[in-house]
Write a structure and sequence with these properties.
single chain, about 400 residues, mainly alpha, two-stranded parallel sheet, about 75% helix
């Protein structure tokens, strides 16, 4: 028993010494630091470039496919990487990439963004796919060592995202005719699927922590299973749907399944709900984000009536759902893992949440209600997005680049 305790202490001391070597560059102590700051900065810079292109101010040969890819595999995947590199270390007690290893991962991600902007897709593909594979290895090895097989649903989604990114680059390099389309949409659907799985795990736990009701929110297995199965069927129907059943699944199936997902996810939200969330910004922001995703499924179902374009529900999920949820998680993890209070975020953080919610409403509702001025509304939403993440970067750059406030390693 004594020797086991000593071994455990030695392991903890070794882990701490690894981190202390990079005390002067705390940015590379843990995954969330570099990747959250990188994600925040790139979401501003990447959106600024897209705003310039979309507005016609300058022509920098960036396409909507580039915009979609970089929001998914540039911004969103950086958030996923930062979150999992940190969480897997907590789940397993085994170090993920840190120090020089983390610097290499981050550099590959950054180089991929640069060469995507320049349109040098061969180098971008090598950097991006190498980064994703090394990241996957860094988080899979600890999970396997600790035999935490429950986490493999998440890892399966990550592996599919790597494949989706490969499709995208195959399309850009003219190896696959439909590669860009398949890569971006497969990436989008699996990011949303990953969000559905991970929120189902963390949100009830966060609610229990914040609530003073001493009530455990038990997941209803039939509901969780129904959401997963319905979502997989909906994704399949979107890829194979057509107006005539002779060519594949009839398009009506996609609308019906989207309506079912709206109902099921509304039930899920209701099962999590407690009034205490409205006093906790890092809880209500997650609820509102999930509400946007749920609303997005309703808008997908209503596509049946051809009232608006496909991009209306897509941006409800992408901006209001994924955007707000990732921002909220970055704030929560950054505060918690830097030794700060997650229950009292800065008023500027709360203001940033409101600005992003406004950006989502402007992007989704106003082009539908006032299509004549669609370009104005899209530009306004882009500016509001940039303001949101600029606030995040200004507030959290010092937190992410400096050692923990409580003096602990991490």
């Amino acid at each position: 028993m004594v020797s086991l305790q000593k071994a455990k202490r030695d392991e903890e001391n070794m882990s701490q010494s690894k981190l202390s070597k990079f005390a002067a560059t705390a940015l590379f102590n843990l995954g969330f630091r570099a990747f959250f700051l990188g994600a925040g900065l790139y979401s501003v810079f990447g959106m600024f470039l897209w705003w310039l292109q979309f507005s016609g101010i300058v022509s920098i040969n960036l396409t909507s496919a580039w915009h979609a890819h970089e929001m998914l595999f540039g911004y969103t995947f950086a958030v996923i990487a930062g979150f999992l590199l940190t969480s897997v270390r907590n789940w397993t007690g085994i170090d993920t990439a840190t120090g020089a290893g983390l610097l290499i991962l981050f550099s590959l991600w950054l180089l991929a963004r640069l060469f995507n902007i320049l349109g040098v897709y061969t180098i971008a593909a090598v950097c991006d796919l190498t980064f994703m594979l090394l990241f996957c290895w860094s988080v899979v090895v600890p999970i396997v060592k600790k035999k935490q097989w429950r986490q493999f649903a998440i890892m399966a989604a990550i592996i599919i995202l790597i494949g989706a990114n490969g499709f995208y680059y195959a399309g850009q390099l003219e190896v696959s005719q439909y590669g860009v389309y398949l890569g971006n949409y497969l990436g989008f659907y699996f990011v949303v699927g990953l969000v559905l799985v991970m929120t189902g795990r963390v949100v009830p736990f966060f609610v229990e922590q914040a609530s003073q009701e001493n009530v455990r929110r038990v997941s209803r297995s039939w509901l969780e299973g129904s959401i997963l199965v319905s979502y997989v069927l909906w994704v399949g129907s979107n890829f194979f749907a057509s107006e005539t059943s002779e060519l594949g699944i009839h398009a009506s199936a996609a609308y019906l399944l989207a309506g079912l997902l709206f109902v099921l996810n509304s039930m899920r939200l209701k099962s999590w709900y407690t009034r205490v969330i409205w006093s906790k910004p890092l809880l209500w922001s997650l609820f509102v984000a999930y509400g946007f995703i749920t609303f997005g499924f309703l808008l997908y179902a209503l596509l049946y009536f051809s009232w608006y374009s496909f991009f209306i529900p897509l941006h409800a999920v992408a901006v209001g759902g994924i955007g707000l949820l990732t921002l909220s998680m970055m704030v929560r993890v950054s505060l918690g893992h830097s030794g700060r209070n997650i229950h009292e975020p800065s008023g500027f953080v709360v203001a940033a949440f409101y600005v992003l919610i406004l950006a989502s409403l402007v992007r989704v509702l106003l082009p539908w209600l006032d299509p004549q001025h669609k370009v104005w509304w899209v530009q306004t939403s882009q500016i509001l997005w940039m303001i949101t993440f600029a606030v995040f970067c200004i507030l959290f750059a010092p937190i992410l680049s400096q050692p923990r406030a409580d003096g602990r390693p991490g």
